[in-house]
Amino acid sequence: MANIQTIAQIQPISSAVTPTAANMGTGSSEPSMFSQVFQSMIDNVKQTDATRNEKYYALVTGQLDNPAEATIAATQAAVATELLVQMRDRALDAYSELMRISL
Questions:
Q1: What CA–CA distance (Å, rounded) separates 92 from 86?
Q2: Are 66 and 49 in contact (CB under 8 A)?
Q3: What is the pLDDT of residues 10-44, one digit of tens each?
C-alpha cells in the first residue's frame, strides 16, 4: 500500500481577502458570499480529512469492521480537496481576466 500523507492545515481566510466594511463603503461587517463559499469548502476539506484519518486509524488498530469505509473516506477527502483546488484556480482565472479589462 502506498504511503499516505496527511493534508497540511489550511489557514483561515483573512480580512485581506474579505473586504471590510470601510473598504466596501457600507455599514455591514458580514463576510461576503465569496468568502463564505470558500470558508465552507475549506471546512469541508478539514472535515473529510479528519474523517479519513479516523477511519484509517480505526482500520490500522483493528476497530473498523469494513475496510471499504476507509477507502470511501479517502476518496471523499480527495474529491473535496480537488474541488477546493479547482474552485481556487477558477477564482484566480476570473480575477486575472478582470484585471485585464481596461476601463
A1: 10
A2: no
A3: 666 554 444 444 444 455 677 888 889 899 999 99
